[in-house]
Amino acid sequence: MNGSRVLRAEVFPILASACLFLALGAGFFLLEGHAPVALFLEMVKSAFGDSFAWSETLVKVAPILLCASAVVLPAKLGLVTVGAQGQMNFGAMAGTALVLSMMNGSAWVVLPLMLLTASLGGAFWGAVPGVFKARLGVNETISTLMLNYLALQLVDYVVHGPWKDPSNLGWPASANFPDAAILPTFFGSRVHLGLVIGVVAALILHVLVTYSRWGIALKVMRSNQRVALSAGLNYERNVIIVMAISGLLAGIAGIAETSVMQGRLQAGLAGGYGWSGFLVAWLSGQSFLRIIPMSILVGGLLSSADALQLFAQLPSSSAIILQGMLFVSALVVMNWVKLRGYHA
């Protein structure tokens, strides 16, 4: 009986969310004058139909997965952070500063230093709200949200000002990255090292939070801070640590996008991946293992925007609308499940 209840609690919300999402998506397509089934099939084909489609989906999975991990880790301590978008930008800006100072450097030197600098930049931008939370009690959701906009403005400033390349004919962007600063790609596609880092990071963090003493400590501090204090666990220090690691992951996502996908720093580099990562983390139940397939699903949804444009003449932003519908579907179903007592 208990096994049946656990299975129902795990499977039913997923199936119900999927059905509600398909219903909402079908309604959206019908309002636009298109046959839902045919368009859904085109979306699936566009995202997963062949090797090229898969490669373009995986290109989007890389930053989504890293940003999802950046949300899941703080959640293990009961923190809700929405700062991956800003941490991506700040990490990319830090990594770009290193690249611009070593334009003639060797790849064996530039690439590791670029990743390290971007990681440290993202970690710093993540640690700032961690310090605010630990020392001043500032809500981390609000502070990370505000810091997102500050990071975006900082990137805008440098690409319009001191780092603007005159050869870009007025376009606000830095100089193009040299070949030595481009992350490796695989199989002749745009799939890059950032995807490997994202998968490895998710697996390592799963092991750490599930089996290590630190992971157990996070659970104790999340569930009962009074017990944690009596056990000698430092909640404030761990808040700063998990927020810094969170920013580190998002910073890597930022420099990977800048290096491979854009080849230079420019405004709008994050492309909404920070918010997609938050969606993935939430839909996966804050599980490091589940965010991997969920990132593929959401990455495929975003990748299918081309199908919406080519076959239905819908704007690419339609994929963002569908992503929002997916989030709303999961939110409605999860709350309904709780009210019905499936998790009792």
TrEMBL record:
Record's subcellular location: Cell membrane
Keywords: Cell membrane, Membrane, Transmembrane, Transmembrane helix
Any Pfam family the entry gives: BPD_transp_2
InterPro entries the UniProt entry points to: ABC_transp_permease
Positions of transmembrane segments: 12-31, 61-84, 105-128, 193-214, 235-255, 267-284, 291-312, 318-337
GO CC, any one term: plasma membrane
Name by which UniProt lists this protein: Nucleoside ABC transporter, permease protein 1
Topology term for the membrane: Multi-pass membrane protein
Gene Ontology MF terms in the entry: transmembrane transporter activity
